[in-house]
Write a structure and sequence with these properties.
21 helices
Length: 517
């Protein structure tokens, strides 16, 4: 598979994922707006703390299989070892189900032991955890089902259920809870019903549109051989990695809850999702990048990988930077429009978080490249170091600086892990994205952000919509004039545009038909 074909497949596949992820994140913010209009900041903070506990539980109980399964399915498909694919699917689902059921028994008791005499002495968070914990087995099986489809290049399934069905149902159930003036317990129960509903729809889809053809599916049998052990050996470091990467996001909430009031936790967790949009492009492309490059590794076609890494990273940052610049320069505007003036105290934290999150797009697909190459052990070590930095910085700064200290901890830890993974990809695989054109782009964006901040501080910018439009148009004109994209990339873009128009004309009717089933 050539560089052109690989890039075309990644971009074409991620186009639908990108749209779905954007819709899902937008719905998540709308849902938070609905909830924050009904719940007091203290109640919303309690709900956020409980969601953090459930998210940590789910990440641990997934056992890293959500990343290991698609990698190995794509890898063995590249080697045409179909029987190993069957074993992976069955063993992963069984292990996920057992882990999910065990989490129901262990997680509430463990949380009570750790926090019952601390920040949750009154048991408010624990009462919410005891309800939401029943969503964990459904979440794990949903994660693994999406991972299986991802290994077969059917990445649109993630959009159907995680970006449409789940957030739409959550918004619907949450709106009903607010409409009937339900208490915090009612909102929590609405969340649980949303996950059960999403799992039910996924089960119907899995039966009607299985990832493997029915003729092949009949050959499956339950077995736990060398392939399963190989999956566990690869996935266990990813379990540690995923857990620690998630903890890097959640440790802010936990430590803010310990040192500060639930109101501060609520404000911080309201503004935090805004910077999630900065990872929108890289996560969408990475969702397709891993199975495509894993299959190349399985076929022993490694020559195109370096060029794929360079091109995709540059394109990813090109598309992400305009949103970063607007969030960084106008944080008060975004918060006020979304949540109201009572949350504007989170503006400084939002600006700092934006600096940390843009590093994900700037360094690009280092994590995904290491994941596809099978270097899960290093990802684990890297995440351990970064999580340690996060905890240390938070412990030093949160008691005095509150949510600003939490934001600094997240930004420093996220940036450090990106640097470590980039150095690893460079030293082990001789891959990095820092071509002369990418260095030129770096200089341009730094100059533009500096100029915008200076103009705002001089009261030359007011935050009017025409300023945003002018900035975006000017940005892409400068990129074009500076020749950041070479002629080969321009040809790729033209070809991708043609293919995308053709695919979207087929996908929209197909998606509507699928969701109607």
């Amino acid at each position: 598979m050539s560089v052109n074909d690989s890039v075309n497949r990644i971009v074409a596949g991620s186009g639908v994922i990108l749209a779905g992820t954007f819709i899902g994140m937008l719905l998540d913010i709308i849902t938070k707006k609905v909830l924050t209009s009904h719940l007091a900041p203290a109640d919303f903070g309690t709900y956020a703390l409980a969601l953090t506990v459930i998210s940590v539980t789910g990440a641990v109980a997934t056992l890293g299989l959500n990343e290991g399964v698609p990698r190995y399915i794509a890898f063995f498909r590249g080697r045409h070892e179909e029987q190993k694919v069957h074993e992976l699917i069955i063993s992963a689902m069984i292990m996920g189900l057992i882990a999910g059921l065990l989490s129901i028994l262990v997680s509430p008791s463990l949380f009570h032991t750790l926090a019952g005499n601390g920040f949750d002495a009154q048991g408010k968070v624990l009462s919410v955890v005891k309800t939401l914990i029943f969503a964990v087995p459904f979440t794990i099986l949903l994660n693994l089902t999406v991972a299986i489809y991802r290994g077969f290049d059917r990445t649109n399934v993630n959009m159907y259920f995680y970006n449409i069905v789940r957030p739409v149902s959550l918004l619907g159930f949450a709106t009903v809870a607010v409409f009937i003036n339900a208490s915090l317990k009612g909102v929590v129960f609405a969340d649980l019903l949303s996950m059960i509903f999403t799992f039910g729809i996924m089960s119907v889809y899995f039966i009607k549109r299985p990832p493997i053809k029915r003729a092949v599916k009949q050959e499956r049998k339950i077995q736990f051989g060398g392939t399963t052990r190989q999956l566990i050996r690869y996935s266990f470091p990813l379990l540690i990695t995923a857990t620690l990467l998630n903890i890097m996001s959640w440790i802010d909430t936990i430590m803010l809850g310990y040192f500060k009031s639930a109101e501060i936790v609520g404000i911080y967790n309201a503004v935090y999702p805004i910077v999630g949009f900065l990872s929108l492009v890289v996560s969408s492309m990475g969702f397709v990048y891993v199975p495509v490059t894993s299959r190349l590794w399985g076929q022993n076609e490694t020559a195109p990988l370096g060029s794929i890494y360079e091109i995709m990273t540059k394109w990813c940052f090109l598309l992400t930077f305009p949103l970063f610049a607007l969030i960084f320069v106008y944080p008060e505007y975004f918060i006020t429009k979304l949540y109201g003036e009572q949350y504007v105290s989170g503006a400084i934290a939002l600006r700092i978080l934006a600096l940390g999150f843009i590093a994900n797009s700037y360094f690009g697909f280092n994590y995904h490249t290491l994941l596809a190459s099978g270097d899960s052990d290093f990802l684990m070590k890297c995440s351990v170091a970064s999580a340690g930095i996060n905890v240390a910085v938070n412990f030093m700064l949160i008691p005095e600086y509150g949510m600003v200290g939490a934001a600094i901890g997240t930004a420093v830890s996220f940036s450090s892990i990106e640097v470590l993974m980039t150095l690893r990809a460079w030293r082990k695989q001789n891959m990095h994205p820092f071509t002369s054109m990418y260095r030129r782009l770096t200089f341009i964006v730094i100059l533009m952000v500096g100029s915008m901040l200076a103009a705002k501080n001089a009261h030359l910018l007011t935050g009017a919509l025409w300023e945003y439009a002018t900035f975006i148009v000017g940005y892409f004109l400068i990129v074009h004039r500076a020749k950041i994209l070479n002629s080969a990339e321009m040809k790729m873009i033209c070809e991708i545009q043609k293919n995308f128009r053709y695919r979207i004309s087929l996908r929209i009717p197909e998606s509507l038909k699928t969701l109607a089933l």
